[in-house]
Amino acid sequence: MSYDxxxxxxxxxxxxxxxxxxxxxxxxxxxxxxxxxxxxxxMTVYLDVDPEQGVVKxxxxxxxxxxxxxxSSSLMTAYLKGKTLDEVRIIFDExxxxxxxxxxxxxxxxxxxxxxxxxxIRDYPSRTKCASLAWHTMIGxxxxxxxxxxxx
Amino acid sequence: MPESNTxxxxxxxxxxxxxxxDFPILSQTVHGKPLVYLDNGxxxxxxxxxxxxxRKFDAEQYGTVxxxxxxxxxxxTLMFEDVRQKVADFFGAPDRKEIVFTSGxxxxxxxxxxxxxxxxxxxxxxxxxxxxxxxxxxxxxQILCEEKGARLRVIPVNDDGELIMEEYEKLLNAKTRLVAxxxxxxxxxxxxxxxxxxxxxxxxxxxxxxxxxxxxxxxxVDVKDLDCDxxxxxxxxxxxxxxxxxxxxxxxxWESMGPYVTGGDMILQVTLEKTTYAKPPARFEAGTPPxxxxxxxxxxxxYLTEIGMDNIFEYEKxxxxxxxxxxxxxxxxxxIGNAREKASIISFVxxxxxxxxxxSMLDQDGVAVRGGHHxxxxxxxxxxxxxTTRASMSFYNKFDELDVLAESIRKVIxxxx
Lengths: 152, 417
What we know:
The structure holds 2 protein chains of 2 kinds.
Chain A: H1 10-17, E1 30-36, E2 41-50, E3 55-64, H2 67-80, H3 85-99, H4 128-142, E4 149-150
Parallel strand pairs in A: 1-4
Antiparallel strand pairs in A: 1-2, 2-3
Helix pairs in contact in A: 1-2, 2-4, 3-4
Chain B: H1 3-6, H2 16-21, E1 29-30, E2 33-34, E3 36-37, H3 48-61, H4 71-90, E4 99-102, H5 105-120, E5 126-130, H6 139-148, E6 151-155, H7 165-171, E7 176-182, H8 194-203, E8 207-211, H9 223-226, E9 230-234, E10 245-249, H10 251-256, E11 267-270, E12 275-277, H11 291-307, H12 309-328, E13 333-336, E14 345-350, H13 355-364, E15 367-368, E16 370-372, H14 377-382, E17 388-392, H15 399-416
Parallel strand pairs in B: 3-15, 5-6, 5-7, 7-8, 8-9
Antiparallel strand pairs in B: 1-2, 4-10, 9-10, 11-12, 13-14, 14-17, 16-17
Helix pairs in contact in B: 3-11, 4-11, 5-6, 12-15
């Protein structure tokens, strides 16, 4: 294939085809609905947080969106499972800065692990919101936002 | 490109090589590939004559209009009003004063919703739109209805994207104040039977607005023959600069309407107690208009007239037929909108990939298409898709560009499957 761009790496294509944690969590402790009004992406993120230890016991998502948003949601849920809420917020900040091009995971210390594969998105400003919708929605759930989260 | 595919064996309607030389932007490459510009439904590129006219006007002739008593301003005013005449002639309007310049179709519809709607639509009245309108021809009416306690009614569409006319007839009644539908659907390409819609609307005593954003540059439009009450258009979709458009309205309606945007130039007299308004069209053109853009619009209209709207229609029809055939052959591709009467727009979805991914992937091959809901979410909901990819063609597109599109789509399917 001649498509040699950072946007559609094999990992992203795989997670788009077979997303992880693509399901509802019954009795979730937190959930939030997020939309990207410009493109119509629409998703709900569910979390089951252990109130004693502040640990994400389970996290999932459902919704419709492009490969970038689906793969981002899939990788996010896989990565955050088992993390503490403090860790989750740090990772959110780092991810957000990375996709906006404000943090270079090759040069700066981070806690993003394989999530750094979304680094290339900074070269496609029209797609940044596709990658960050799940993250904003997840934080909205933790902040117990009752209104819809919008990327606009 | 074999001659038979164009369906124009005798005399090609369009000298495509000559036309392409008129548009300097088309010769560029994107990601190392020749640009294939297929987002003409969103906005059109500018021919050299428009670019040059705008440059010359700004460099040598620019001045304010309808104000100064000096030569530059007087000349600019004459040129500006000359374009109003060109627009009137282009759309078959009997009187140039029936053309009001706006920033584009969105503002044009808002103007009518505000100035006509707020005055003549009352509680209990009804406004009819269709299920395949742009948000610009939906939201202003929703707001008006909410404000007035009026009811918004919607003409349904069949699975091919055609308005169900029997249902339209059932919606019309003595309470119908206004019918607002597009001439061509931006999301599906459906050409609506506007003449019939207008006649039936009038029979019920309603006024009819036609959103011409997608028709004005693709076919001959004659507002007098259509007998519409309002017809709106956007300059940037007809090869003119962005920031200018307008609305044709029947003079008796304009005269009955109050202003929309208020301020300078739309008044007859202002005292601190009371203001009386200027006659149309000045009443609806407060403030300094987009002068340079209007001049550019005049040049674009000259260009379209020289090529001939009938030639443009025929050529784009051949493009549509060719492109439709190519895309129909692709497994896993479904065209949304298969109306019998269509303008050169093909909206489609792939089983394998989301429209936004398709757009980004096609861009890698130099192909510019639109992926999204096209500001027509009710249309997307009707067809059960979150978004579509839309290829919208112009008379400057070549048949082999559609081959590139089809080939690029096949690559996307292969990669995403």
